[in-house]
Structures are given as C-alpha cells and as structure tokens.
Design goal:
Elements (H helix, E strand, L loop, with lengths): L18 E9 L3 E8 L4 E7 L1 H5 L1 H16 L8 E5 L6 E5 L6 H6 L9 H20 L2 E2 L8 E4 L2 E4 L6 E2 L7 E2 L6 H4 L6 H17 L9 H10 L5 H4 L5 H10 L10 H11 L43 E2 L20
Parallel strand pairs: 10-11
Antiparallel strand pairs: 1-2, 2-3, 3-5, 4-5, 6-9, 7-8
Helix pairs in contact: 4-6, 4-10, 6-9, 9-10
This protein binds adenosine-5'-triphosphate.
Length: 338
C-alpha cells in the first residue's frame, strides 16, 4: 500500500517488476503516475495505465504510442524515458521524475494578477520551442502543447505527453486542447508543425502577458474565439515585453498556418531576447525505418520504435483531459484532472 498526503489511498493493484512504488504523484485520464524507485535506486515517475485504458483499443493505442515515441525521442527539452512496455498487462512508462511538477502548477502558485518573471518565461518558452524544433525536424507533430505538458526543473523546461504525437508521413488522429488548439484543427483539418506553433503562441501570450488570448466557457465559445477573434496586443497587457517577441507571438497566432513562423524562428528569437546567440540545433539521432513492436515487449531506449497509428480522421477529438466529464456526465473545459 502506498500513502501520500495528496492521495492517501493507492488505487492500482498492479505492480511493475523492477520498480518499488513510493507514492502517487498524479492521475491522468489514461494512467496513474507514481514516484517509484528503480532497482538502481533512481527515482522515476512511473506511468501505469488504468485497467480501463488497457481494455479500450483507442486508449491502449494512445498509451502504446506515448511509450514508443517517448523512448524514441532524445532531446534535452523532451521528458526523458528510461524504459517502458507499450502494450499488455505489464504496460508502463518510466520517465524522468520532475519534483517541481508541471508548468500549470507553477502558474497556479503565482499570486493573482502576477506573471512569471520575464526571463524565466522566456527561458521556458525557448526550451519548448527547442523541443518543437527537434520534433518538427523529425517530421513529427506533438498536438498537445500546453503548460500542463511542460515539466519544469530549476528554471528549465521539458515537453512531455507524446500520447497524441505522430509522424506526418504516417498520419495520426487529429486532436488538441481547446484553449491551445489551432483554427485548422477546429475546422477538422489535419494538424502540422504550424498547429504546434499556434499552441506555443498561446503559451507565449499567456506567460508573457499574464492572460490567455482567447476566452470561452464552452468548446463552441472557444472555437468561435480561435476562428474569428484577434487577441488584444500583448504590449497593451505588458509594455515591457520585447517588441520582436510580442510581434512573433502574435504572428504565431495567425489564423492561416502558412503565415506562422516556424518553431525554430521562435526558438532563435527567444534566445536572442535572453541575450544568447542562437546556435543551430544539431541532431545526431533520428528515427529509423518503422518496425512493428510486438505487444507486451519491453523496448529499450536504443531501439528505434515506430508509431503505428490510424490515418488522420475528422472531426477532431478534444484531448482527453479537456473533455473530462463532471458527475453529471457533461465535460468541463476547466476541470483539473488531478
Ligand atoms: N515526469 C513526471 N514527473 C513528475 N510528475 C509527473 C510526471 N509525469 C506525470 N506526472 C504527474 O502525473 C500527472 C498525470 O500525468 P499525465 O497527465 O501525463 O497522465 P496521463 O494519464 O498520461 O494524461 P492524459 O490525461 O493526457 O491521458 C501529471 O499531472 C503530473 O502531476
């Protein structure tokens, strides 16, 4: 039995060989996440899918997809996976543990009306832009860029949750989170690197101005806002923001994907705003030819593991955490899942 102040009762009866569960860290729609000790004593965030996730084909595929891709990607600003099993009763994903949690928690801890210090915000945004530059270089689209999927450690950030990520050459189910979702996704079109840039643009606006650019209390209201409205200029909300950065953040929110800057342009501008000469990112590792992973097999970090997902479908599905149901069965955009 595992106890923690926040989650006094451990709900999963399952154990994963090689890991000792220490306490529950959080609960997502797909899985429970525990602080666990590996055999070498290292602490990890151990993701164990809910029984229900394993029973539902689509949810199980989403978890398997997250395991395979997180193991495959190697980048300082993408949450590092130590080990994992994509499918079967022993499915799990052992991730680097972030004791300081995700960015949402940091934003929620701020006093009302306060923003993150500007340099801290620029640094986090530059790290996320760097992670996206890498993913887009590989031909992958993350599809769920938002503060809840950004983990923070000592002022540096790493992008996590590869459950919705896919390689554009292979296709994948289109999804997103309504506050961060690009107009083309609301239109039911396929997502691209430019859709991730739009989501990063929302985060830039939110972190640097202290307010989200679009508001709404339902999916429909948010859809109208993203499709038809233009946000107030960032300079109006925070006159100290670097002009070039506020201009680029607004460009990242262009309704047409082709008009948005690339993740790399954002990365470079953010580094320049931090006073750091932007270097080219050099990647020494890219995914190799897809191979099918046998269900239930544990995949080591050094084996390239592909994603096998269905072709794009429409209409788009809101990301799982944004369609979380309340007790009356309606889904709430605002409900925290923890
Ligand atoms: N690497 C980590 N380090 C620390 N805490 C983590 C880590 N990964 C996840 N958590 C905690 O566990 C919670 C649930 O994780 P997450 O949201 O990834 O679960 P999920 O079931 O995969 O999500 P989804 O609802 O998108 O399917 C997070 O909100 C966070 O509090």
């Amino acid at each position: 039995m595992v106890y923690s102040a926040r989650y006094p009762v451990m709900t999963s009866e399952r154990t994963i060989p090689g890991y000792k569960l220490l306490r529950l860290l959080g609960r997502g729609n797909t899985s429970l996440v525990y602080l666990a000790a590996a055999e070498d004593g290292r602490h990890v965030a151990l993701k164990i899918p809910h029984e229900q996730t394993l029973k539902e084909k689509e949810a199980a595929e989403r978890f398997g997809n997250e395991v395979r891709l997180t193991l495959q990607f190697r980048h300082p600003h993408i949450v590092h996976a130590h080990a994992g099993t994509p499918f079967g009763a022993q499915a799990f994903l052992a991730l680097r543990y972030y004791p300081q949690g995700d960015l949402t928690e940091h934003l929620e801890d701020l006093p009302p009306g306060r923003r993150l210090p500007e340099r801290q915000a620029l640094r986090i945004l530059a790290d996320v832009a760097s992670a996206l530059t890498y993913l887009h270089h590989l031909g992958a689209v993350h599809q769920d860029v938002k503060p809840q999927n950004v983990y923070v450690h000592e002022g540096r950030a790493a992008l996590g949750d590869m459950g919705s990520t896919f390689f554009t050459s292979q296709g994948g189910k289109v999804s997103g989170s309504p506050f961060y979702m690009a107009p083309e996704i609301y239109h039911g079109e396929s997502s691209s690197g430019a859709s991730d840039v739009y989501s990063l643009g929302i985060m830039m606006y939110e972190l640097l101005s202290g307010a989200r650019p679009f508001h709404g209390s339902s999916y429909e209201e948010l859809m109208v806002a993203h499709l038809t409205r233009f946000p107030r200029s960032m300079a109006h909300l925070n006159s100290h923001v670097d002009r070039r950065i506020s201009r680029l953040a607004e460009l990242a929110l262009a309704k047409r994907p082709a008009e948005r800057p690339s993740a790399d342009e954002l990365r470079r501008a953010l580094l320049e705003a931090l006073g750091e000469p932007p270097q080219d990112e050099i990647y020494d590792d890219s995914p190799s030819t897809p191979e099918v992973v046998t269900a239930g097999r544990t995949v080591g970090r050094h084996k390239p593991v592909p994603m096998v997902v269905p072709a794009p479908t429409s209409p788009p599905a809101p990301a799982e955490d944004d369609k979380e149901s309340d007790r009356s069965g309606r889904w709430s955009l605002f409900k925290r899942r923890k």
